[in-house]
Write a structure and sequence with these properties.
Lipocalin; 333 residues; elongated; 5% helix; 8-stranded antiparallel barrel; disordered N terminus; 3 domains
Length: 333
C-alpha cells in the first residue's frame, strides 16, 4: 500500500499526467472568422466557407470553398498540428471554443460545428408585443420575415426593404449581423423574439407541411385579413376583413368544399372539389376546383396553403399588375 501511495504521489508531483483530462478536439469545426492586420472579420461576409473534421484515428478532412483536402493531425504541446499529403504543416492553437492558425498572414478562426437545423429556414413576423399586449403585425402595418441559411448567412425583409448579413447561435437564441448592426433574438416557446424600442417582435418558424391529405384541411375557415404585395412598388398592404366589409367562409370536408362570400352587393356561393399536390418549398397544396351547376369543373379554382398553427392561406398572383394576394383564414371557433 505504501509503495502504491508513493507512486501516486510521484505522479501528482510530475503534473498528474496520468489523471489529467485531455481536451477532445475530434469532430467538425467550421470557419467562422479571419483576422487580418489585427482586425477580426466574419468569414461569411468575406465569402470564405470552410470546414475541418478531425477524426479519432488521426486523419482529417478540410473543405475550403468547395475544395476538399485530406491529411493527418496530431496533438503536440497543446496545439493541433495538421499535415497535408504534400507535407505542408499548419498548427492550430486552441482558444475559447476555437482553433486558429496563421496562413499567408491571415489568422483563420474555426469554431465547433453547431447543429443549426432548428433555426435554418424562414422565420415570419407573426406577432408584435408592447405594454403587455400582443397584436398581429398587420394591425401596425409591419411586414417582416428573415431567411437563415446553413452556411451562416441570412437575409431580412421588412416592408419592402431587403438586407443581407450573417447569423450565429448563442446560448439563448441567435444573433443576426447586417448593415453595421447586430440584433439579439431570444428563443422561447418556438419563437424568436427581438426586443426593439420597447416592442417585442415575435417570429415563427415557417416549415412547409408535407404529406397532408384533404382530410387535414377539414373545417370551417373564416377570412380574417389579406396581405397584398406589390412587386413594382416593393411594398405590402394589409386589409382587415372588417375594414374591407367582406365576410368569407370556406367549408372543407373530405375533398368537397364550399366558399361563401358576403358583401354589400349580396351573397355568393361556390362549390368545388379538392385535390392535394406536393410542391417543393411549398409543401402540400390544396387546389379547390370550382364546379358548375352540373357538377363539372368550370375552370375556376383556389390555391390553398396550410401554415403551421392552423392558418390557411388562399394565394393569388395577378400577372398583369405583378401583385400577390395572401388571403388569410383561421378555423372558426
Amino acid at each position: 500500500m505504501k509503495k502504491l501511495l508513493s507512486v501516486l504521489l510521484a505522479m501528482l508531483l510530475l503534473g498528474g499526467t496520468a489523471f489529467a483530462e485531455t481536451e477532445d478536439y475530434t469532430g467538425s469545426w467550421m470557419l467562422t472568422g479571419a483576422e487580418i492586420g489585427g482586425m477580426q472579420l466574419d468569414a461569411a461576409a468575406l465569402g470564405m466557407d470552410g470546414t475541418m473534421t478531425l477524426n479519432p484515428d488521426g486523419t482529417m478532412v478540410m473543405v475550403s470553398n468547395g475544395v476538399e483536402e485530406t491529411g493527418t493531425w496530431t496533438l503536440e504541446d497543446g496545439a493541433i498540428v495538421a499535415t497535408d499529403p504534400a507535407g505542408d504543416v499548419l498548427a492550430f492553437v486552441p482558444g475559447d471554443g476555437t482553433l486558429s492558425a496563421e496562413r499567408d498572414g491571415v489568422k483563420l478562426i474555426y469554431s465547433r460545428w453547431e447543429d443549426r437545423s432548428a433555426y435554418v429556414g424562414t422565420w415570419i413576423l407573426t406577432a408584435v408585443g408592447a405594454a403587455g399586449k400582443t397584436v398581429a403585425p398587420e394591425k401596425v402595418g409591419v411586414d417582416a420575415y428573415m431567411n437563415l441559411y446553413e452556411d451562416g448567412t441570412c437575409d431580412a425583409h421588412a416592408n419592402g426593404v431587403d438586407e443581407a448579413g450573417t447569423w450565429a447561435i448563442t446560448e439563448t437564441g441567435i444573433t443576426t449581423t447586417g448593415g453595421g448592426t447586430t440584433d439579439v433574438y431570444t428563443y422561447a416557446d418556438g419563437l424568436l423574439v427581438l426586443e426593439q424600442e420597447g416592442l417585442q417582435l415575435m417570429f415563427t418558424h415557417y416549415v412547409p407541411l408535407f404529406n397532408l391529405t384533404t382530410a387535414d384541411f377539414n373545417g370551417v375557415w373564416q377570412y380574417t385579413y389579406a396581405e397584398i404585395y406589390d412587386y413594382e412598388a416593393g411594398s405590402s398592404e394589409y386589409v382587415d376583413a372588417e375594414e374591407e366589409g367582406v365576410s368569407m367562409t370556406l367549408t372543407l370536408q373530405d375533398g368537397e368544399g364550399k366558399l361563401e362570400i358576403v358583401s354589400a352587393e349580396g351573397t355568393e356561393a361556390y362549390l368545388g372539389e379538392c385535390v392535394v399536390e406536393e410542391i417543393e418549398d411549398w409543401g402540400s397544396v390544396l387546389y379547390f376546383l370550382g364546379l358548375d351547376e352540373t357538377g363539372a369543373q368550370d375552370g375556376s379554382g383556389l390555391t390553398l396553403l396550410m401554415y403551421p398553427g392552423d392558418e390557411l392561406v388562399w394565394y393569388e398572383y395577378d400577372e398583369e399588375t405583378n401583385v400577390e394576394y395572401y388571403n388569410n383564414f383561421v378555423l372558426a371557433q
